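input
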Amino acid sequence: MAEVLETVSGHGGELVLRRDGAEFEVIENGMFLMDTRNGESERLLVTGAADRLAPGARMLIGGLGVGFSLRAALDHGTVGSVVVVEREPAVISWNRTGPLREVHGAALDDPRVTVVEADLLEWLRTTGETFDALCLDIDNGPEWTVTEGNASLYADSGLAGLSRLLRPGGVLAVWSAGAAPGFTARLRERFGEVDVVEIPVPRGEPDVVWFARG
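output
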């Protein structure tokens, strides 16, 4: 039986950190959000983007999660610096000094990392920064958002805003717990090159990661 380590009030409601054996789980409002059991697709989100970039790339990771994506970015020889935008202070704390620190080897201590505590959509609308890669993992998918307002990120207007933050030759990478044909179509209308990668999972339909550029 899973052990509750901490329960806090977050921006999206009640957040719970649990330990189940050797693994950790994060639950939001009673809905499973993330855990440390696999992480293959979360790592591919950043490594697949980084593989398409030149050395010294500047990467944005939207959503800290359990740190799998950040660790993979830092271990990839192409990535020079990473900005992580995470809206939940508890998630940042659990990763920086709490139990999740051991999952990624204290990745937040790396001098190449800047952590921004902010709502990603609001931050994207106001930032003047540009990136070689935008790697987004803040929802269960374009058609299964954690927060209702996040749906605009995957609409035509959201994709237009994201493309303005990409440097020439930059890559937009988006994670999902399932297929989203409508989102694929919108990406192909805006970007010249779109790859859709399915990653098998132990149960249910495959995770999906999109890579778009041009």
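quick obs: DSSP finds six helices and eleven strands in the chain.
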